[in-house]
Design goal:
168 residues; alpha+beta; Nucleoside Triphosphate Pyrophosphohydrolase; four-stranded mixed β-sheet; 3 helices; 21% helix; 33% strand; globular
Length: 168
């Protein structure tokens, strides 16, 4: 059973916890943390969702729901390790975007790691494939409609580009 902390519309903890799979009450929110990973070559890691999950077989960054008692960044560290086997320290994650959606707040992080596909340890019930792509390839895949999140990506894609190619 997965438990989440419950937040109000201003992202204040309510003191309640929630069981995943049960609909949240109106005005209740939980936290989700996403992580974009960039390798030393400036390529972006994409993982492919398990076919039985929503948006099955689509490509995405690592991420998921933050568990009760975790901060957003701790959840991001845990999700990245669980899904890919990449272990990072909290200070290696840079927050690039936050948004409130219907029933969740989503924090999006980015990190640069010395990693290649052969070093990944994919979580089989969540991830069925992984690859590194250039930023241009990521944009092409997004335009083809095979990358999620579809809409939110537009809000922070320039942050990813600047992270990969910082201004001189």
């Amino acid at each position: 059973m997965e438990l989440w902390d419950v937040y109000d519309e201003n992202r204040r903890e309510t003191g309640k916890t929630h069981v995943r799979g049960i609909p949240l009450e109106s005005g209740e929110y939980h936290l989700v943390a996403d992580v974009w990973t960039v390798n030393e070559s400036g390529e972006v890691l994409l993982t492919r969702r398990h076919p039985e999950k929503p948006y099955g077989l689509m490509w995405e960054c690592s991420g998921g729901s933050v568990l009760a008692g975790e901060t957003s960044v701790k959840g991001a560290v845990r999700e990245l390790a669980e899904e890919t086997g990449i272990h990072v320290r909290e200070e290696e994650l840079v927050l690039i975007h936050t948004v409130r959606l219907e029933e969740r707040f989503v924090d999006t992080y980015i990190t640069r790691q010395r990693i290649n596909v052969k070093q990944l340890a994919l979580q089989p019930e969540e991830v069925v494939d992984a690859k590194f792509v250039t930023f241009e390839e990521l944009l092409q895949m997004w335009e083809q409609g095979i990358v999620v999140p579809k809409t939110r990506f537009l809000l922070y894609k320039d942050c990813i580009r600047r992270f990969i190619n910082p201004p001189s």
